[in-house]
Specification:
CATH class of the largest domain: Mainly Alpha
Low-confidence stretches: none
Number of helices: 8
Structural class: mainly alpha
Mean pLDDT: 81
Number of strands: 0
Number of domains: 2
Length: about 180
């Protein structure tokens, strides 16, 4: 492309690199905006342990309190712009990933209890599930669980089905002695 005098030749690689810089900046800005959105959706108890200074915390509380869809979106974008200039952004990301990991572990434990309950309430897998419960939770009332499960087998009682899960969850949350 050096047809005219005084014009530099532009290599094809340079054009691509120029676009990548802007694209990467947009990607980073979008990631920070996602972080800002996650911060606005945190529970009240998690807000107290956030590594934010007072000004950013005020911005976060304002974004959380904004009700209208458009105004809330605009406020989150404003909060994200303030976050881009925050020097401890890596601490916030670590906090959110730890919070997300804890949530995933809780969800996994919940699903495992549901599966155990389902195996207990199915006649074909009842004996194996009851044996597993005896080994995993020695302090639980096995006879009560067996009676509730048999009630589900014969009548399909939904109350007994839910009560089995409550018993299992209560036992899994209590510290083993």
């Amino acid at each position: 492309m050096k047809d005219e005098p005084g014009q530099e030749e532009i290599k094809p690689d340079e054009k691509k690199q120029e676009g990548r810089g802007r694209t990467e900046a947009k990607r980073v800005a979008k990631a920070i905006e996602e972080t800002a959105l996650q911060l606005t959706e945190l529970s009240e108890s998690a807000l107290g342990s956030l590594p934010l200074d007072a000004a950013l915390l005020q911005e976060l509380l304002l974004a959380r309190a904004t009700k209208g869809h458009g105004s809330r979106k605009r406020q989150i974008k404003h909060f994200a712009a303030r976050l881009r200039r925050y020097d401890r952004l890596d601490e916030i990301d670590a906090f959110l990933s730890d919070d997300n990991e804890a949530h995933q572990q809780q969800t996994q434990a919940f699903h495992e209890l549901e599966q155990l309950r389902d195996r207990l309430c199915t006649q074909a897998t009842f004996d194996a599930a009851l044996l597993e419960i005896n080994q995993s939770y020695p302090l639980i009332h096995h006879n009560k669980l067996a009676r509730l499960a048999r009630n589900v087998h014969t009548t399909g009682d939904k109350k007994s089905y839910r009560d089995i899960f409550r018993q299992l969850r209560k036992m899994s949350e209590s510290p083993e002695e």
